[in-house]
Design brief:
Blueprint (H helix, E strand, L loop, with lengths): L1 H17 L13 E16 L2 E20 L3 E17 L3 E7 L8 H7 L6 E6 L4 E5 L1 H11 L5 H15 L1 H12 L12 E6 L3 E12 L3 E15 L3 E16 L5 E16 L5 E16 L1
Helix pairs in contact: 2-3, 3-4, 4-5
Length: about 290
Amino acid sequence: MKSVLIFVSFLLLSTAVVSQTNLQYNLREGEVYKIRQQARQMIFQEMDGAVHELTNEISGLLEFHVIKERDSTFEVDLFFRDLNLVMTSSIQGELMNVNAREVKEGDLQSKVFNSLLNEPVHMILSKNGDILEVTGGDSLVAKMSGASGISDEFTLNMMKKSLEQEFGSEALSNSYEQMTFIYPSKPVSVGEIWKNEYQGKLSARNSWLLEAVSDSSATIKGEAEISMDISEPVSTMKLDGSQSTWIETDLLSGFIVSMKVEGSSQGVTIMAQLGNAEIPTKIQSVTTYELIQ
C-alpha cells in the first residue's frame, strides 16, 4: 500500500512539473520579425472650466533583425520601416499629419521623420525580454535634427531635446520594454503570477498571469500601476494610473503574435509659461502590436 502511495505521489509531481511552461525568447541569428504598431492617445486638459482635447494617432512598421545569439542574451537591430503621425486639437484642428515615407517639399516635419527610416538601432535583449542596452538612438536623433535644415543653434538644441524624449537610446529602451519585457525568470504554470517593473518617462509595476497554453502559443494577461513623468522645454506632465495588457505569444520563438495595451492616467501638467500653473490632465491610450507573418 505504501509503495502505491509513493507511485501516485510521483505521478502527481511529474504532472505538475510537465505542466510548467518555460516562457522566454529563443531567437536565431538571421531571423526577422515584422511588427505592425498602432496607437491612439487622447489627452484631456482642463483650464478655466473648459476642456482641451488633444489626440495623437500613430501607426508604423517595425523590423527586428536577430544579429547574434549569445548564452543568455540576443543582439537585435531595430528598424523603423514606416511611421505615420496625426495630431489634432479640439481647439486648433489638425496640428500634424506626417507620413514618414513621403517627403513633401518645404515640409520640415516630413524631412525629419523620413530620416529615421531604415536606420538601425542596436539592442541587447535578455531571454526574459529585459532590454539591457540600446545604442544608435542618439545618432538617430542627430540625423533627424540635421535633416531639419535648421541653422539656429538654440532652435536646433530645442528640437534635439524634444526628439530625445522619443528616439534617444534610453527612450527607445524604455518604450519597447513595454512590448518585450513580459516573461518570468523561471518556468511557470497556468494560473501562476509573476512580477516585474521598468523605469522611464512611463514607469510600470507589472503583475503578469499565464492564462492558457496550447501546443504553439501562450496567452498572458497583465495589470500594472503606472506613473508618467514627461519633461518638455515648456511643460512637465506628472500622472499616475493603471494599464491592462493582453498578449498572445509564440512558444517556439518567444516573440509576440499580438499584444493590446490599454492605459489610463491622471494628474497635472505644469506650464512654465503660465508661471508653473498646474493644469488637471488625463490621458487614455490604446496601443496594439501585431506580428506580420
